[in-house]
Write a structure and sequence with these properties.
Belongs to the UPF0313 family. The structure is a single chain. Helix 9 packs antiparallel against helix 20. The model is unreliable at 620-657 (pLDDT under 50). The chain has two domains: 7-213 and 220-270, no CATH class; 302-611, tm_1862 like domain (pyruvate-formate lyase- activating enzyme), CATH 3.80.30. It is built from 24 helices and 24 strands. By secondary structure, the protein is an alpha/beta fold. The strands form eight sheets. It has a nine-stranded mixed beta sheet with strand order 3-1-4-5-8-9-12-11-10, with helices on both faces.
Length: 657
């Protein structure tokens, strides 16, 4: 495939590449915080290919240098229609910093994982430069950073309440969520001759109106005004109350238009588009992608994020979980947009015929792997719904949670003659596989799906995310009671024994989440130890814009009840909660003993650190543990965590030799 491709098969990134295509000028120039990978998993590539499909001349400037004479911002000139700017597939602050605000030593979206190619707050930095260099050319911003910062939001890294990114970036328009539908309409209007500054009623866009600008009328929309940015700065409770409106309107099929004052200006956020149809989402995956990084990176090393998804297939968008700490529904929406089986199988065939494909698909998944084709049984009920989650506190009786289409899809994928094995690398909602929780589902369908995944689609380890053991914390997280994880583990163990699989169950957990106390973490450590787990996949809560948990972290109030919620804020509080994950480390034992004695929880102490030496065994498959790594799957297909473990094992073997 590489030998057949020409430089002109990628969107141009330089003047030389523009000239190769015979173009004298460009219609749209995209700027991105990521390296350019021409693949349907990377947003800038999708938008670029979509604009190209309209007949537009599109170029992309990936990771422009902001530390030199800024030639990357002027080298292609000004586009005829607009500049498009995105910080990349992740918020740049998440890319650049960990939960402790320490700079990361790797950037997954840069060749070789090198750091320093993406500035902090990239969308704002790029747009400010473009507005300075080309003041008369419109700049449209989008992607995850712009989408999640569209209103007044708390920025964890500066520890400040920030106004809409439209204000800080000076951009002319913001597209929130997945951008294909609004961009299609923006381009249609521009090509009709409508001036960019007159385009202000497109769904799923936001603009900042000047003091003297009239509010555009739209008889189809209801309006609602939330507390101004200045009020939010003075009153944390008002800031918290804003979020309920923002979240509910983001997830409604017939949403209201939102207004917010910022100084003398007015932020106007138009309602979102309806969920993409099957045909619309199929089209996004059917553009002529090369599915490869741009050749300019050939000598710089592999791009880690691309290596992870190179042989993976994305089957849907959206997530109806509505977890309090997660931004997926805020960006992709809670309603699921699923691809057709035909579209998915067509992409499987494309991947299977890549020259370096060895027969292993690393993931057949989405934001939550097992939400494919799920939707409301009666659409009119969904039309009126304002709930941020379809499965919390209980699974909605109107939600069709049949796993049969997904099981059939997996089986159809595995029939491809060049596919030896397809893995499910995305997170699976284990709670939806428990009949005691998913009461309206057919238990046999749930068991069939679980068995299909366990027997054919994992390599040694199945990863799920109960997140916590405390019911009050889980309730705030919008996650089900931990008792359903126990129920799932029972089913998992039963299938493991029945099929002789020797699989490990790997649970993910979060510390220092709002409402979590030290005692909750001690309970978590004791309960998971009692189940045979020595936890590996753990993380501290990181406040990111546009989540319930972040609003609580900053304001101290729950946006739906406006009641106070205790939250670990200081580094000491966070570190102490996190230490309970690692009760088995010698350096933590004395502190845990002292803390639990102080809390009067000798019962937990006797579980975690019994006085008598206990015969304790990790929860792992019987037989040779090497099965976890010596599966017939190639090294490149393993998850990032498994790769690190695998490399470590290889190094240790060499040392012993």
């Amino acid at each position: 495939m590489k030998n057949e491709l020409q430089l002109s098969d990628w969107l141009p990134t330089t003047n030389k590449e523009v000239k190769i295509r015979g173009w004298e000028a460009l219609d749209v120039i995209l700027f991105s915080g990521d390296a350019y990978v021409d693949h349907p998993t990377f947003g800038p590539a999708v938008i670029g290919r979509m604009l190209e499909s309209f007949g537009l001349r599109v170029a992309i400037v990936p990771q422009p240098n902001v530390n030199d004479n800024l030639q990357d911002f002027v080298k292609l000139g000004a586009p005829k229609l607009f500049f498009g700017v995105t910080g990349g597939c992740m918020d740049p602050m998440i890319s650049n910093y960990n939960a402790n605000k320490k700079r990361r030593d790797k950037d997954a979206y840069t060749p070789n994982g090198d750091i320093g190619f993406r500035p902090d707050y990239a969308t704002t930095v790029y747009t400010n430069i473009l507005k300075e260099k080309w003041p008369d050319t419109p700049v449209l911003i989008g992607g995850i950073e712009a989408s999640l910062r569209r209103v007044t939001h708390y920025d964890f890294w500066s520890d400040k309440l920030m106004p809409s990114i439209l204000e800080t970036s000076k951009a002319d328009m913001l597209v929130y969520g997945m951008g294909e539908q609004p961009l299609r309409e923006v381009v249609r209007l521009l090509e009709k001759g409508v001036p960019f500054n007159s385009i202000n009623t497109v769904l799923q866009t936001a603009v900042l109106l000047k003091e003297d600008e009239k509010i555009p009328k739209n008889s189809n929309w209801e309006d609602i005004e939330i507390s101004s940015h200045e009020v939010c700065l003075k009153d944390k409770k008002k800031y918290a109350s804003n979020f309920k409106v923002i979240e509910q309107e983001s997830n409604k099929l017939a949403a209201r238009r939102i207004f917010q004052k910022i100084g003398g200006k007015t932020l106007m956020i138009n309602p979102p588009y309806p969920t993409m149809t099957e045909a619309e989402i199929d089209a996004s995956f059917d553009y002529p992608y090369t599915r490869l990084p741009h050749p300019k990176y050939n000598k710089r090393g592999p791009i880690p994020a691309f290596e992870m998804i190179k042989f993976s297939i994305n089957i849907h968008r959206g997530c109806f979980g509505g977890c309090s700490f997660c931004t997926i529904s805020a960006h992709q929406g809670k309603f699921i947009a699923s691809r057709s089986q035909e579209s998915i199988l067509k992409e499987v065939d494309t991947v299977a015929n890549m020259p370096d494909f060895k027969g292993y698909l690393s993931d057949i998944g989405g934001p939550s792997a097992n939400m494919y084709q799920m939707k409301g049984k009666v659409q009119s009920i969904c039309d009126k719904c304002v709930a941020p989650s379809c499965i919390s506190p209980v699974i909605c009786s109107n939600l069709d949670t049949s796993h049969k289409p997904l099981t059939e899809l997996y089986q159809a994928v595995d029939k491809h003659p060049k596919v030896k094995k397809s893995f499910i690398g995305s997170g699976i909602r284990h709670d939806m596989l428990v009949p005691e929780f998913n009461k309206n589902a057919d238990p046999k369908e749930l068991d069939d799906y679980t068995e299909e995944v366990m027997t054919k689609h994992v390599s040694g380890r199945l990863k799920v995310a109960p997140e916590h053991t405390s019911d009050p914390v889980l309730k705030l997280m919008r996650k089900p009671s931990f008792k359903y994880f126990h129920k799932f583990k029972e089913r998992f163990d039963k299938i493991n024994i029945k099929k002789g699989l020797k699989l490990q169950l790997i649970p993910y957990f979060i510390s220092n989440h709002p409402a979590c106390e030290v005692e909750d973490m001690a309970n978590l450590a004791a309960e998971t130890k009692d189940m045979g787990f020595q936890l590996e996949q753990v993380q501290g809560f990181t406040p990111t814009p546009m989540t319930v948990a972040t609003v609580i972290y900053y304001s101290g109030y729950h946006p739906y009840t406006l009641k106070k919620v205790n939250t670990p804020i200081t580094k000491k509080e966070k570190d102490e909660q996190h230490r309970f994950f690692f009760w088995y480390k010698d350096e933590n034992k004395a502190w845990i003993k002292k803390t639990l004695n102080k809390l009067g929880r000798e019962d937990l102490l006797s579980v975690l650190l019994p006085e008598k030496t206990e015969k304790w065994r990790k929860n792992k498959p019987t037989g040779d543990a090497k099965n976890t790594f010596n599966d017939a799957v190639s090294f490149n297909q393993r998850t990032a965590e498994d790769k690190v473990r695998f490399k470590g094992k290889k190094r240790n073997k060499k040392k012993r030799r």
